[in-house]
Amino acid sequence: MTDHHSELDSRQAKLTQYQNEGLNPFPSRFNRTMSLHMAITQYHHLTGDDTSPVITLAGRIMAKRGHGKATFGNIQDENATLQYYANLNQLGETNLHRLIHMDVGDFIGIEGHLFRSKRGELSIHIHSFQLLSKALLPLPEKYHGLQNIEQRYRHRYIDLVVNSTVRSQFATRSHTIHSIRTWLHQAGFMEVETPVLQSIYGGASAQPFKTHHNELGQDLYLRIAPELYLKRLIVGGYERVFELGRVFRNEGVSYKHNPEFTTLELYQAYADYTDMMNLTETLLSSVVPEEGSTTSVYDEHVIDWSVPFRRIELMKALSDYAGLPTNPTLVELQNKAVSLGLDATTGVSRGELINFIYDKAVEPHLIQPTFVMNYPWETSPLAKRMTSQPDWVERFELVVAGMEIANSFSELNDPHDQYDRFLDQQQARESGWMDAHQMDHDFIHALKVGMPPTGGLGIGIDRVIMLKVNAHSIRDVLFFPHMKDKKESKENPHE
């Protein structure tokens, strides 16, 4: 602890010294001519005594070595690391001393020329330099880094500085989301924005976060899904719409759940859930595997994204993986639920029992991309009934590596059936199931205006990114996952 406080004192003393010397340790800007990656790419061919023209670069000092009449170090920017070199003849005694005594973590602007060191490493020979930002806290040790997983999540900015792999994963996230948007635009979908603050939350079975609007004097909720507003746009005449953004659910936290997460929802007029299956597999097979490949690696599994994906009916999956008959009785479902250690078998509907057993006994075993089709109507209040089996609805979930990745319906557009479904949900809520859907009279009004046959799809973007970068927790693909508040040292928050 003494060494740590000495380090803090030393950095603060250097800051004070710069200020006393009339140097600005936090200038407003610096005019660099290129990034480190651009410099390395443009001048990688240098050999022997060849040098580049004078250029200006900038970055964070990540390592220092040498002293006396010469010094070496490494600077890092967003995408690359480059060695720097300085000597007494070029800088003079005062400036060389100042450079040697800069700290790891400081940002520096450099003017100089590139050359190959005696060891063959591309380096910049410093002609002049400028402190761009004084770091008052030390970075984690070079060879140990920021290893504590909780601290990595709490202080992501430090994690990003010291772990280039983490920076790369988030760059992949950004690129993947851009690719999804591009794919949808090319497929004729229009991107829209719908309310995040809603007076009636809906579109999923979940608990909301509640807030209050002072001027209106009414409670509002952070959306749990954009579904009902997007379908209002289909009523309004748009035929292909999508929204890619944050939703919020006041639920538990796990390796695949965060209170806020990113979802893609899209709706296509004159389509059903089979059209959505085709769209889903075409979209994901184009953005998840590496370019030129049809596979990705997740944990010990090689995931094959070749089209078409496997398709299996829910009850067939229960038979194959849970050992149930293809048309089980209520008692058989209850007994299976008990054998799996599930509660609340008394008073729970047949559909809810099926869902419980599926989540426990089936989903974890579905590794390769699999569409699980046709669900009980009781658990799908916004989906259209199957014509041949009205107790079932036209719905699928896509499961990959034991995780639900996508959910889709043939959207219910009969206002009378939808009203009755909302009443069923309301009764369930009054019986204590607080995740049940609220009654939404305005949505019923919209359906009475008329909505064409429509296919809807929701994709969990964070889970798609998990699969793409082989991350085993949703927190690894969120810049700032939610963490329980914790008191920590003000002097060394990443200790």
Structural commentary:
The protein has 495 residues and is an alpha+beta fold. The chain has two domains: 2-138, Beta Barrel (OB fold (Dihydrolipoamide Acetyltransferase, E2P)); 162-309 and 368-477, BirA Bifunctional Protein, domain 2 (2-Layer Sandwich). The protein is built from 14 helices and 18 strands. The chain has helices at residues 2-20, 36-42, 88-100, 149-154, 156-162, 164-186, 227-235, 273-287, 314-322, 330-339, 350-362, 415-430, 441-449, 461-469; strands at residues 55-65, 70-76, 81-87, 107-116, 122-133, 190-191, 197-198, 210-213, 218-222, 240-248, 260-269, 295-298, 301-304, 310-313, 370-376, 392-400, 403-410, 454-460. The strands form four sheets. The chain has an eight-stranded mixed β-sheet, with helices on both faces. It has a five-stranded mixed barrel with strand order 1-2-3-5-4. The chain has a three-stranded antiparallel β-sheet with strand order 7-9-8, with no helix packed on it. Helix 9 (314-322) crosses helix 11 and helix 12 packs antiparallel against helix 13. It is elongated, with a radius of gyration of 29 Å.
